[in-house]
Every structure is written in C-alpha cells, then in structure tokens.
Amino acid sequence: MSNLTLGDLSITGLTDIKSFTIPAKTLFPDFNDSLVKSLEPSEQLIVSKGLINLTIRSWLLRQSGQNILIDTCVGAEKNRPNHPHWHRRDGIEWLAALDKEGLKPEDIDIVMCTHLHADHVGWNTKLENGSWVPTFKNAQYVCGRHEYNYWSATYKETDKHGAYEDSVLPIVQKGQMQFVDDGWELAKGLEAQLSPGHTPGHLCLKSNKGALFCGDVIHSPLQLSFPELSSAFCENPILARKTREKILTETSDSDSYLIPAHFADPGWTKIKKVGSRYKQIV
Ligand SMILES: [Zn+2]
Fold it and tell me: Which of 11, 38, 154, 195 could cross-link with 4 by S-S, CB 3.0 to 4.6 Å?
C-alpha cells in the first residue's frame, strides 16, 4: 500500500474491501446515462457498463509517535444479512494490512469515526467469547456528538445493518467513546470539521499539513464532475450536496489533498475547480 507523507504526518490506507461494484443508478438516484457522455474519455471509465467501483478503507495516520485510525470499515463476523458480502466475513485482509505496517490493534491510540454507518465502524469491535468488545483496547475512540445523539435516538428504526448495537454501543458502554464537536483538535494539527448531510453529524478531519479526510462527503470521482449527485445513502441529500460543494471548493482553493473513504487506489487526490466541475490534478 502506498504512503503519503506530509511533513511529519504519514498517511497509509488500510483496505478492507479492495473493490466492489454498484449500479450508478442505485448509488446516485439522479444519475442518468447522458451524464457519462458529457465526460472526457478518460473520465468515462469511472462508470463502466453502468457500474461504479468503490473501495472500503481506513486511513492510518502516524505523527509524533501516535497511531491514529480514521474509520474502521466493515469488520469481521458481523451479522449483516441485508448485505451478503459483509455478512459474517473473516475480514482477515484488514488485519493483515495493519500487521504489514508493523502494528497490532493494541498499538492504536485514537480511532475516529467520521460517521456511524456500518462500513465505517466495523472493526471498532471484535467478537470475543460471544460478546462484542473493543478491537483497539488501548485506544480513545471519538465520534461526533450530534452523530451519536442522532443514532442513539433512532437506531431501532434507521440502522438497517445493526452496526450501532454491535460496533458503537459496546465502545460507549466500555467508556472508550468520546463525543466531540466542530473544531475539536484530535491531535496537533488535526481538527474535526462538522460536515452534515450524508449523516447529520458527519465529521471530516483537516490536517494543517494540507489534507482533508472527508469520509463520505464524496463517494466516487463521478461527483467531482457532478457534485450535485448525492448518494442514495445520504440522510439529507440536499444538505449533503451543499456540504460537498463547499468542501470541494475549499480543497481546490487550498491545494490540499482530498482523502475520502471509498476512492480507488491510492485513495487520495488533488482537485482544481473548472467551471462547476472539479478536475483531478494528482
Ligand atoms: Zn461509506
């Protein structure tokens, strides 16, 4: 896995699911085939036979002797009957990727959840003697206060994968989850930014070294060309669009790396605004 170094900040992707496809029309309800025709030939590959490729990965940040994880993917052994590829899988690749970096789960100091969807909190917990326990026993976990309040009030009706009960609640019950607000400093030079829309309390993490870890503010490079496309999984598609356009413009203006959760390898990009679209320049 390639590594991005910005000053004393080292950034490495840990892949849980390298590639899966989803019909563009399923992922983006406002998608239509004519959009692809207006793309440049190289960009048309983003949608192949009507399908979009996504990756599911965590970001490992290392700076000043601290090991920080952003998002924890799908995880292992989780009951996900609505999602056969996630259902009771062994998830061994993700642990191997961590091991390859010379780290064990107990070496992780901080785990930040950009939001509480099932593909971002899975490795938060592992199955031990029939119970879900924190995978990262020495870590301080963090998530947005507003995000937690939303899911804790609605999970019985809204959490179709059941991730809240097996991957969030056990962390809270152990006293390992900290709830944070917009502007909270996760570590030196790393600041949480409230970015609502995909979920109500979604957080990005901004590095002052020139990177924005933006979770699910954007899912696919297709949304660089058509930032108006919100996903079917966005709780508030209109707000998600507004947040995305603001963040893409800021990232373009500041020449920062944009580092989402689901882009293909290497998983990061730099963008430049051209008219109403954004072009990848790295
Ligand atoms: Zn996601």
Answer: 11
